[in-house]
Amino acid sequence: MTLLRDEDLAAAFDHAARGYDALVAANPGYHAQLRRSVRRLGLPHRGRGLRVLDLGCGTGASTAALATVLPKARILAVDASAGMLERAAAKPWPDGVTFTRAPAEGLAEAGVTGPFDAVFAAYLFRNVSDPDAVLTTVRALLAPGGRLGVHEYTLSGRRVDRAVWTLVCRGIVQPAATALGDGALYRHLWRSVVEFDTAGRFADRLRAAGFDRVRCLPLPGWQTGITHTFVGRRSRTEPESGR
């Protein structure tokens, strides 16, 4: 199976949107770990006065994590899948949370403009065709000193972590997804992780894209060595003309 990309991936997510939250709910600690990754951004004052971009919001799990940890922030949540975005936008949200349909590769065309004080991207970068181009776009959208938080399946490089990931996908996730008619998407999920960067390589990718103070932090539970938080910053000394 080849990886799903661009319109094919968005269409697969459109179809999977109806059962997505149910599958997520079966993942122990899923929502708590998203909140942990948001806290690792280290944004002050519960987000008061800050503008945050939730890049690849899906059905709103990452948006909910942001709204919980940063209830005073203005949050713009975007996703390429109309189906996922419809599910997200239909949920109750506090003032200051808005949704826009936009692919990560086409933010400007969709009217998404900076500066943002932070960008948060959960389970996004292994799904885009050109992660380096998206990182360049994200960096340009950040204000000087702005922070990027990435919550992503990035294997540690140890064989045992790949084996656990494969066991969970093939033994639990894929059978459940196939029963819902979404087997292709979740076969993509397994392959997209094993073919993407290891955690160390993704941290190096962030540095190469111009982010400083890059940290790679593990997450607890069964996903230790499988899912990581990455935090980076756009330099405060970079001139505005570099945007």
Automatic annotation (TrEMBL):
Coiled-coil stretches: none
Keywords: Methyltransferase, Transferase
Record-given protein name: Methyltransferase domain-containing protein
Organism: Streptomyces fimbriatus
GO molecular function: methyltransferase activity
UniProt-listed InterPro entries: SAM-dependent_MTases_sf
Pfam family, one: Ubie_methyltran
One GO BP annotation of this record: methylation
SUPFAM superfamilies (UniProt xref): S-adenosyl-L-methionine-dependent methyltransferases
Keyword Methyltransferase appears in the UniProt entry: yes
